[in-house]
Amino acid sequence: MIQNRRVHRIRLIASVAVMLISVSVLATAADQQVLRDRIASLSTTAKPTVDGAPIAAVPGITKLYEVRNWEPAWTRAMIRQLYEQVQRSIEHGLNPTDFHAQQLGARLKSTAKDAVYRADTEILCTDALARLAVTIEFGKLDPSSLDRAWNFGRSVEGQDVVSLFNNALNSGNIAAALEAIEPDLVEYDRLQRALADYRAIEARGGWTGIPTGEGLKVGSTGPRVAALRQRLRATGDLTGPDPAEPGVFEAALEAAVTRFQRRHGIDADGKVGPRSLEELNVPVEARIDTIRANLERARWVFRDVEDTYVIVDIAGYRLDLVENGRTVWSTNVQVGKPYHATPVFKSTMKYIEFNPTWTIPPGILRNETLPAIRRDPSYLSRNNMSVVTTSGKIVDPATIDWAATAGKGFPYMIRQEPGTRNALGQVKFIFPNEYMVYLHDTPSKGLFARTERAFSHGCIRTQNPFDFAEHLLDNQGWDRARIDQVHESRKTTRVNLKTPVTVMLLYWTADVAEDGTVRFKKDVYGRDAKIIAGLAEPFRVDPPDGIREAVDGQGGSR
């Protein structure tokens, strides 16, 4: 799914350092003193502002201009570039008002020339640049405040952030400096184009919902069919001229419904039932917000991505193996039920285990397995399960008072032995994490036929696990014959990966295919709303590690 255009990200400091253009701002000693005094006054103000715009980066601005010996930096041409880039932030799904758009626009129109006004212009522009650079590079929101499992890095390691911004100012090319830190992903570009397309649909009036009623299919007639036709035409799912009778559901409309269903993760049968009607009646404004939420997610994640990695799209029920920036293998997956949501995090796959055992996790043991055993003493044997001590010694289940387990802690573990009925299937892929989540085979293979596949307790069930193992072990001299031999031995066998592989469990509710098809996915865990709400809130500061000094101030989450 994700394809990096460049393996190594070029950050702002690197890109501007090689294009330094000496920019001379005519300044007197008086100008420098006024700028110094003005910054000092803001440092002692509880809520510093310039023209009503809150200044978030006062400590960073102070350090920056100390390095510059209080020399002003901003020419009128640079201010205009900054203003244009602030206006372009809407293309990233952001709000230009977060970056002082109104105040910058007013400065460009103003003819004021006194020293205090010029000093305030320096402060305002530098704060706007800091806000914009940090947001484009890392996102507006702090993902760890939305998801306790979040463990992706948000730091600029080994960089002098004050020098970073000083170099950007010395370059005089604000547009190029900001462009260098935009997410370097073709998928990000596609989402931006999708955002522009859906905003164009909105500008044309969006679409009208289809009234509720009976399901629609080939042969249906009436005004609801005509409304369906116009709705599908609005998003390009239906093209070509209308038939002589637009109120009649015919083959071309069925094909358009099928296309819409595929784009929205619905069983593609060409009929409009309750699920399709629900998606058809989502307004264009909500679709725009979904795209914006996923642009924000992309800003959180894809910096310095390794050459090879596995990415699981939880909401899309999909796994991709990426090598050198290209997806080389994909398969369907099943993920956690909403009340057993698969967490979003990053880890490293270290080994594969064939013919695994499954030690039942405490929650499942307490809430499901022990009650089942108390109801049916044959449950253990029917499911190829053993009772074991913490040291792995097998215990005779006949010696246990199962009724008593309802009232006290269970002193043993229950392990499902290798076999076709094992809940993990016949192979698992381990990337250590505190959530006991991993990729594995499953005996519930029929569920892969479903379009929406949130069925597990949180782990990721993989449709073609032996093909996956073959790809991962190819560079270790393992072919399919050797894998099959180990599998057929029925012995639990661990194979360490010579080169561990990064695994990213992510959550995307919108993406765009290579052919430009925009795909929306059901927000099965209801995670979009907090992101959309956060993007609408005023800009507040909680910068990533390493740039806290550049954008610091009021505290809280951005």
Fill in the keyword field for this structure.
single chain, 558 residues, alpha+beta, eight-stranded mixed beta barrel, four-stranded antiparallel beta sheet, 17 strands, 37% helix, 15% strand, globular
Compact description:
With 558 residues, the chain is an alpha+beta fold. It is 37% helix and 15% strand.
Mean pLDDT reading = 89
Helix/strand structural class: alpha+beta
Unreliable stretches covering 5 or more consecutive residues: 5-25, 545-558
Give me the count of strands: 17
Query: Strand sequence of the main sheet, in spatial order?
Result: 3-4-5-14-12-11-6-15
Distance between the termini: 28 Å
* Main sheet specs: 8 strands, mixed, barrel
Helicity range of the residues? 25-40%
What is the count of DSSP helices, taking H or I runs of 4+ residues? 18
Rounded Rg? 29 Å
Strand content: 5-15%
- Which descriptor suits the 3D outline? globular
Q: Care to describe what's here?
A:
It is a single chain. The strands form four sheets. Strands 3-4-5-14-12-11-6-15 form an eight-stranded mixed beta barrel. A four-stranded antiparallel β-sheet has the order 7-10-8-9. It has a two-stranded antiparallel ribbon with strand order 1-2. 38% of the residues are buried. It starts with 11 loop residues before the first helix and ends in a 22-residue tail after the last helix. It has helices spanning 12-17, 29-43, 58-67, 76-88, 101-109, 115-138, 161-171, 174-179, 186-203, 223-234, 251-263, 274-280, 284-301, 362-375, 379-382, 465-473, 480-488, 528-536; strands spanning 49-50, 53-54, 308-313, 318-323, 326-336, 345-354, 358-359, 385-388, 394-395, 413-416, 427-430, 439-440, 454-456, 460-462, 493-506, 510-512, 518-520. It has 558 residues and is an alpha+beta fold. The chain is globular and about 90 Å long. It contains 18 helices and 17 strands.
